[in-house]
Amino acid sequence: MADSNPSPKTFPVSWEELHRNAKALAWRLIEGRSWHGIIAIARGGLVPAAIIARELDLRVVDTICIKSYSDDHARGEIRILKNIVNPGDGDGWLIIDDLVDTGYTAKAVRELLPKAHFATVYAKPAGKPMVDTYITEVSQDTWIYFPWDVEPQFAQPLAAQRRG
Ligand SMILES: O=P(O)(O)OC[C@H]1O[C@H](OP(=O)(O)OP(=O)(O)O)[C@H](O)[C@@H]1O
Ligand SMILES: O=c1[nH]c(=O)c2nc[nH]c2[nH]1
Ligand SMILES: [Mg+2]
């Protein structure tokens, strides 16, 4: 079943901002323990996972491929398109995603890997309890636009927008 997501606010994220926040996440994750490797939740987790793997000097990077949103931002059923080969309980592994929104994706992955550490760059309030570490919180009614989803284009001046 698809949920429509009106998300009246938007939050565009630049490449620089994403890099800075992913590196901030790496700082948090390097404190106090070492990791076997990273499990990126594709596709959104791939870029943050690459940045974090570089910072933490982790060479083992696997993926769980999950789709839950359509291109019009409507949430559908969670579909696991590819799992990891030898998951165990996830102990000592880092799961990286770009964001947690409702928390449904994180919940599904946690059921597969209950002892892994789940980290995201961005978090919305409903999904926050599902992650162990995140960097930046945005409100639930905000849609985050990642740099790979957007391209520069002309924007109307505010006054023109007001005139309609
Ligand atoms: O907390 P939730 O409400 O489950 O939403 C968060 C998930 O939604 C997005 O992935 P999406 O399924 O859109 O696929 P993508 O990573 O390929 O963009 C995002 O990358 C997270 O994985
Ligand atoms: O690009 C995205 N931005 C979001 O805010 C979001 N929430 C779920 N899935 C998402 N994808
Ligand atoms: Mg995703």
What would your notes on this structure say?
The protein is α/β, with parallel strands linked by helices. The chain has a single domain (12-163), classed as Rossmann fold, CATH 3.40.50. It has helices at 15-30, 46-56, 104-112, 158-163, and strands at residues 9-12, 37-42, 61-69, 75-82, 93-100, 117-123, 133-137, 142-145. The protein has a 6-stranded mixed beta sheet with strand order 4-3-2-5-6-7, sandwiched between helices. Strands 1-8 form a two-stranded parallel sheet. The longest helix is centred in the N-terminal third of the chain and has 16 residues, at 15-30. It is globular and about 60 Å long. The model has no long low-confidence stretch (mean pLDDT 92). 1-O-pyrophosphono-5-O-phosphono-alpha-D-ribofuranose binds at residues 41, 43-44, 66-69, 75, 97-106, 127. Homotetramer. It is an enzyme of class 2 (transferase). Mg(2+) binds at residue 98. Guanine binds at residues 101, 144.
How is this fold's topology laid out?
Elements (H helix, E strand, L loop, with lengths): L8 E4 L2 H16 L6 E6 L3 H11 L4 E9 L5 E8 L10 E8 L3 H9 L4 E7 L9 E5 L4 E4 L12 H6 L1
Parallel strand pairs: 1-8, 2-3, 2-5, 5-6, 6-7
Antiparallel strand pairs: 3-4
Helix pairs in contact: 1-2
